[in-house]
Every structure is written in structure tokens, then in C-alpha cells.
Predict the 3D structure of the following.
Amino acid sequence: MSDPVIIVALITFLGTVMTIYGAWRTAKGKNKTDVSISHRKSLSDDEQKFRSDLLIEVDSYRDKIVSLMEKLDQLSILNTELRIVNSELRSVNAELRDMNMKLLAKVETMQACLDTTSTSSTSTTTTSTVTNPQTATVEDIQV
């Protein structure tokens, strides 16, 4: 894995090892050899534990980010599908609105025909007049 965090951790670890070695060499010449080495070693162990815990935590966050990215991709696809369905429904709605307007116009025409036939003076003329406009209007209704 060529992860920058791991590379930095390795470089720091090597620096720590070199520091310990240098301290050991310095302490060897003096009478404080045991104290200096054990002190440096305990710091190094603590630092290694801290770094390993930090790497575990970084990996956990990386997994969470990958999971969230996958969910985001799924939601993006779903959003696109819903937009397509929405546009199709809008076009169907527009067609239905147009059909409704046409049907309302035909109903008004039929109502006007009925109003003119109801105002006729004779019943025989009314009967023949009513039959003809209704059949003509029924043919107009067929879409």
C-alpha cells in the first residue's frame, strides 16, 4: 500500500530508531546507559502504539467514506430515474389537460345545441332539431 500515512509513519519510525541508536551510543559512553536506553525505548513503544491506533482509526474513517460514496452513487442513479419519470408524468399531465379542454369545449357546444332546441316553439320541430344536432355533436365527441 503506497498510502502517504504509512510512508510518513515508516519515515518517523526510522527516525525514531536512529534517534534511539544515537542516544544509545551517547549513553554508552556515559554511566547513564541503562536509564537512557529504557527511557527512549518506552517512548518508542508508546509512539508505535499511538501510531498503530491512529492507523486503525484512519482505516475506519476510510471505510466509512467509501460506504458513503457508494450510497451517494446509488442515490444519484435513483434521482436520475425519478427525474425521468417526473418528466414523463408531466407530459402525460399536459396531454390530459389538453384533452380535458377539448372535451369541455365539446360539452359547451352540446349545451348550446340543447339550449337552442329547448327554446323552439313547436314540439315536432324540436324533436327533429334535437335529433340532428345531437348526432352531429356525438360524432364530434369521438376523439
Notes: DSSP finds three helices and no strands in the chain. The mean pLDDT is 79. Residues 4-141 form one domain.
